């Protein structure tokens, strides 16, 4: 009986980190503030900083299309939060500091695997996913 009670308590404590609602509005505001300068307001890769970058920023509207129709969630998280440094930057992408750092939300990714990230990242991901071309 004690095991059942503890399992229930653990499940209740764990659920909020997995079942997090995404906020497109906050994701869009985050995008406009931190991403649009390079990727463009329309996410086409034609932001005002493009001419001074070593490599052109990608068109974020076609991430799923160029990944066999599936939004590359884990890859995007790792590139934005700095776990996978960007060659074009010579360092982790968030040159704007630790804004996207955090491990308070767990997202399910490929084949049931999970990745921990921040609430801000979850909202940004929701916005980027909403921009994908069909």
UniProtKB/TrEMBL annotation:
Alphabetically ordered keywords of this record: Heme, Iron, Metal-binding
GO MF terms held by the record: electron transfer activity; heme binding; metal ion binding
Entries under SUPFAM superfamilies matching the protein: Cytochrome c (SSF46626)
Domain Cytochrome c: 22-132
Domain of life of the native organism: Bacteria
Protein name per Swiss-Prot or TrEMBL: Cytochrome c
Biological source species: Roseovarius lutimaris
């Amino acid at each position: 009986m004690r095991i059942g009670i503890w399992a229930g308590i653990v499940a209740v404590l764990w659920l909020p980190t997995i079942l997090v609602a995404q906020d497109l509005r906050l994701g869009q505001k985050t995008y406009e503030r931190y991403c649009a300068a390079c990727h463009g307001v329309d996410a086409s890769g034609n932001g005002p900083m493009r001419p001074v970058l070593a490599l052109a920023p990608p068109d974020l509207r076609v991430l799923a299309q160029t990944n066999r129709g599936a939004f590359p969630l884990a890859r995007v998280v790792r590139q934005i939060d700095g776990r996978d440094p960007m060659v074009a930057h010579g360092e982790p992408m968030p040159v704007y500091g630790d804004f996207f750092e955090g491990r308070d939300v767990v997202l399910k990714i490929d084949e049931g695997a999970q990745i921990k990230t921040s609430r801000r990242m979850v909202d940004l991901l929701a916005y980027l996913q909403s921009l994908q071309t069909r």
